[in-house]
Amino acid sequence: MQQTLQVISLLIAMILLPALGIGLIVSMFQAATSINEQTLTFIPKLFITILVLIFAGPWMLSMLLSFTQRLFEDIPFLIG
């Protein structure tokens, strides 16, 4: 159970933290320039999320696959 939360938290953080950082930077830019366009933050967040998935996607997939394989191997020990 603890390993599951660690793996999922790491995989989610890899995607959300860069999007959060870009959103914060764009919001600070909007506040400094008094631009009140709601869609201005969407495109950079989408772009950085796609970049993260392209570059970190293979690592994320291998981590998830190895965790799933380990989980299936440990099922007999978990049952009893």
UniProtKB/TrEMBL annotation:
It comes from the Bacteria. The keyword Cell membrane applies. GO terms for cellular component: plasma membrane. The lineage of its organism: Bacteria, Pseudomonadati, Pseudomonadota, Gammaproteobacteria, Thiotrichales. InterPro entries: Bac_export_3. This is Bacterial export protein, family 3. Belongs to the FliQ/MopD/SpaQ family. It comes from Methylophaga thiooxydans DMS010. The chain crosses the membrane at residues 7-30, 42-61. Its main location: membrane. Keywords: Cell membrane, Membrane, Transmembrane, Transmembrane helix. GO terms for biological process: protein secretion. Signal peptide: none annotated. It is a multi-pass membrane protein. The keyword Membrane applies. Pfam families: Bac_export_3 (PF01313). It is found in: Cell membrane.
